[in-house]
Amino acid sequence: MQTPLVYLKGVGPDRARLLKEELNLQTFQDLLHFFPNRYIDRSRFYAIRELPQNNSEIQIKGKITSVSFITQQRGKRMVAQFEDESGTMELVWFRGHQWIRDLIKINESYVVFGRLNWFKGKASIPHPEFELEATFQQSTKMLFYPIYSSTEKLVNKGLSQKVIQKIMVNLLETKTTPFSETLPQALRDQYKLISKDYALRQIHFPESQQLLSRAQMRLKFEEFFYMQMQLVLKNLQRKQKIKGHVFEIIGTNFHHFFEKHLPFELTEAQKRVIKEIRMDMGTGRQMNRLLQGDVGSGKTIVALLVMLIAIDNGFQACLVAPTEILAQQHFQSLSEQLHALQIPVALLTGNTTKKERVVLHQGLVDGSIPILIGTHAVLEDAVQFKNLGLAVIDEQHRFGVAQRAKLWQKNELPPHVLVMTATPIPRTLAMSVYGDLDLSVIDELPPGRKKVKTLHRTDSNRLQVFAFVKDQIALGRQVYVVYPLIQESSQLDYKDLMDGYESLSRSFPMPEYQISIVHGQMKSEDKAYEMQRFIEGKTQIMVATTVIEVGVNIPNASVMIIESAERFGLSQLHQLRGRVGRGADQSYCILMTGQKQSQEAKIRMETMVRSNDGFEIAEVDLKLRGPGNLMGTQQSGILQFKIADLIQDQPLLKAAREKAFQILNEDPSLKHPDHQCIKKTLAALKFDSNIWNFIS
Ligand code: ADP
Ligand code: MG
Question: Could you tell which of 274, 292, 301, 325 is best to mutate to test the pocket of ligand 1, judged by most ligand atoms within 8 Å of the CB?
Answer without folding.
Answer: 301
